[in-house]
Amino acid sequence: MQSYTIVLALVLVAAVQGFAPASQGRVGSQLQESLFDKVAQMDLFAPKKDQNTYGARSKKDVSIV
Question: How far is 32 from 38, CA to CA, in rounded Å?
Fold first, then answer.
């Protein structure tokens, strides 16, 4: 019976700690660049800059022999 009381007390303490206000750790931490800005500035065509330009097929070396 006494072990049940100890377990119940530990569960109640854990429940109270779960609803306690969080400590304020660091006050001012600001990101240099937001996630949206980083994604928006990605260059998807960086490896092949001319793959999406008009006439890019004429630059390919395709010959039928």
Answer: 10
The dihedral of CA 43, 48, 49, 55: what is its sign? negative
First to last CA, the chain: 92
> Per-residue confidence at 21, pLDDT binned at 50, 70, 90?
confident
pTM over 0.70: no
Encoded tokens for 22: 């969080």
Residue 41 to residue 22: CA distance in whole angstroms: 35
Tokens 């990101």 locate to: 31
DSSP 32: S
